Amino acid sequence: MGSMAAVDKPHVVCSPYPVQGHINPMFKLAKLLHHRGFHITFVNTEYNHQRLLKSRGPSSVDGLLDFQFKNIPGGLPPSDADVTQDIPSLCESTSKNCSLPFCNLIHKLNDTSTSNVPLVSCIISDGVMTFTLNAAEEFGIPLVFFWTPSACGSLAYMQYRHLIRREMGSIAAGGNPHAVCIPYPAQGHINPMFKLAKLLHHRGFHITFVNTEYNHQRLLKSRGPSSLDGLPDFQFKTIPDGLPPSDADATQDIPSLCESTSKNCSLPFRNLIHKLNDTSTSNVPPVSCIISDGVMTFTLNAAEEFGIPLVFFWTPSACGCLAYMHYRHLIGRGLLPLKADASWLTNGYMETATDCIPGMKNIRLKDLPSFIRTTDLDDIMLNFVMEEAERTSKASAVILNTFDALEQDILDALSAMLPRVYSIGPLQLLVNQIQNDRLKSMASNLWKEQPECIDWLNLKQPNSVVTMLGDVLIELDEMFSSGQRLGQYEPELRIFVELILISLMDLILPYLG
């Protein structure tokens, strides 16, 4: 709108923090923008406006037709002094008192009945003048923060609260940092999170491992009544998942579980963090860090409320994580959702390659995680993984169970999108090195273990058995097909595959009615 107003120019309002070291770089930026055709309104405080008149002369802030100076009160008592104001007082005053005057100024600039300048197109505000957010939101104007210190200084400021929390955690309970680990409540997510928790415990962390109440009961059934007693510095806690109570010993309906955790788990989790940090009732260190499954982003609310660093642990491959982050791009390109007539099953459409995912050049639709295989744009799972993935950047860091040599291009692409990305796998290889019998005895299997298959495998020659991995709830048909092809070559292997598939059917049939 601003570029279409009285003068065909975009109009930028520049608002520096009112001290010399911030005004100078903002003024240089304003000059550069003016040189590129922008109308400029440069906003000083009334105090600094008077200082400029004293130092530069009465006509020094007359400006140009398209480069004007405006001022707002700084909120401190009036003064004729020609010195830098007290910085702590100035910081407190600008944050408390400058929002309304700045909003009024934007309103005045945009009042076409009295103003002869273009409508404001953009606000460029000093990074420590965040009261400008109120005006940007009120008037629907894009806001850019200009951090005048070095990039490393800006980054350091963003970590101050984390440093405070880390120090608080390290000085409590003998100096042990305290990590709260919360996996998505399904076996394939619980296992890697549990391995990570063991590794952190081995390195001196106090661990609180958070299961849903439903899975807590399943673990007690499969592992025994004392299986979750834990250790003095490795405890288990629970929160409700929001679904109706059930005594079933089976994986819950995944779409319903996803919808429920995202809607219902935030408050119980925040209450748990509050309880852990309540020194009057808790005998554990204050929580130093939350490690949350990448699809449990409701944990961001607790991290923000309590000022605790949050790390997302994406348990799929790095390429799976990157793919989720680009599902919306695929929709934007018209590649999703799939055609309702199911023609995509037979016409080769799934062979379509796309170049919109960095690090995965020309990947085919058939190679992407299967949540794209829907004809419904409102599909619960499609939208769930999209929304969860898009919130990943809000975490302090992201960790993945992979290693650089395996997915280097993917990790490079993720590193360009996210604040910090760490490859920490393969976790099992690291866990195998832990020499702690009590820790080794702790397990996370939701089903009672059946070691007969391991006994059978131990009798076979190295490299003589093929293991099939996959989501048994989604890819059963493909696994049957693979089993038939494998079985035609080796009778003994065919028997083993058939045993596996029979076991899988025992798990799947309850869902098929």
Task: Provide the descriptors you would attach to this structure in a database record.
single chain; 513 residues; alpha/beta; seven-stranded parallel sheet; five-stranded parallel sheet; 20 helices; 14 strands; 44% helix; globular; disordered N terminus; disordered C terminus
Q: How far is the first residue's CA from the last residue's CA?
A: 58 Å
Shape: globular
Mean residue pLDDT: 85
Helix segment count? 20
Main sheet: strand order: 8-7-6-9-10-13-14
Largest sheet, in brief, is: 7 strands, parallel
Descriptive overview:
Residues 180-303 form the Glycosyltransferase N-terminal domain. By secondary structure, the protein is α/β, with parallel strands linked by helices. It is built from 20 helices and 14 strands. It has helices at residues 20-35, 46-56, 87-97, 99-109, 132-139, 151-171, 187-202, 213-223, 254-264, 266-277, 299-306, 318-324, 327-332, 380-390, 404-417, 427-431, 437-441, 452-458, 476-487, 491-512; strands at residues 11-15, 39-45, 67-72, 122-126, 143-146, 178-182, 206-212, 234-239, 289-293, 310-314, 353-354, 363-364, 397-400, 421-423. Helix 4 (99-109) packs parallel to helix 5 (132-139). The protein is globular. The chain starts with 10 loop residues before the first strand and ends with a helix.
Write a short abstract of this structure:
The chain contains 20 helices and 14 strands.
Secondary structure layout:
Elements lengths: L10 E5 L4 H16 L3 E7 H11 L10 E6 L14 H11 L1 H11 L12 E5 L5 H8 L3 E4 L4 H21 L6 E5 L4 H16 L3 E7 H11 L10 E6 L14 H11 L1 H12 L11 E5 L5 H8 L3 E5 L3 H7 L2 H6 L20 E2 L8 E2 L15 H11 L6 E4 L3 H14 L3 E3 L3 H5 L5 H5 L10 H7 L17 H12 L3 H22 L1
Helix pairs in contact: 4-5, 10-11, 19-20
GO molecular function, one term: quercetin 3-O-glucosyltransferase activity
Keywords: Transferase
Protein name: Glycosyltransferase N-terminal domain-containing protein
